Amino acid sequence: YSTINRGSEVLELSDEYWAMWDTIVQSELLVGRMLKFDMTIDHPHKYMLHYMRSLRDLFGAKEWAAMPVAPTAAAFLQDFHMSPKILDYPASHVAVCCLVLACEVYGTVVPLTEHADSSDNWYKVFCPDLTRDVHWDIIEDIISVYGAE
Question: In whole angstroms, how far apart are CA 74 and each of 21, 46, 63, 81, 107?
Fold first, then answer.
């Protein structure tokens, strides 16, 4: 209360106080439910930054800076936080799928993969346990965020 109403006196223990208290408790409970009461969350952002740095080294700093892949992948990740499905997958998988989707959107080919047997599996370096089916499930869930309004 004091943060929003600077300069105001301390709120008395009245009906207004208890109504605010109840609202805050209900909001905390809602956030807890959305997090499935797992308060120790491994955030995909730290993985994404590591993966972006590796890709930047692979592409070269100038070429990487000229491509919109990094900001687009970050936007996909930010938007995917609007869906509770983000909690269904490991953070490393979500991060790499956002990068893969951004590369697909812009038609970016990762260097040194054009001669590989399957050039679309370059992300296996980052997430060897990510299967193709789970990969596509995550990408579908990311895209579905944009269909819901």
Answer: 35, 11, 18, 11, 17
Give me the tens of pLDDT residue by residue for the chain, a chain 149 residues long. 666 777 888 788 888 888 988 999 999 999 888 777 877 778 999 999 999 999 999 899 999 999 999 999 999 999 999 998 998 999 999 999 999 999 999 988 888 777 666 656 788 889 999 998 999 999 999 999 998 76
Q: Count up the domains in the chain and report the number.
A: 2
Residues 56 and 122 in one domain: yes
Q: Same domain for 103 and 139?
A: yes
Question: Cα separations (Å) of 64 from 71, 103, 111, 130?
Answer: 11, 12, 11, 25
Q: Which two tokens stand for residue 139?
A: 């990408």
Query: Rounded to the nearest 5 degrees, what angle is found at the Cα of 4, between the Cα atoms of 9 and 43?
Result: 140
DSSP category for residue 6: T
16 lies in the same domain as 79: no
Global confidence as pTM: 0.72
Could you list the residue range(s) of the whole structural domain that residue 7 is in? 1-39
Regarding whether 59 and 110 lie in a shared domain, the answer is yes
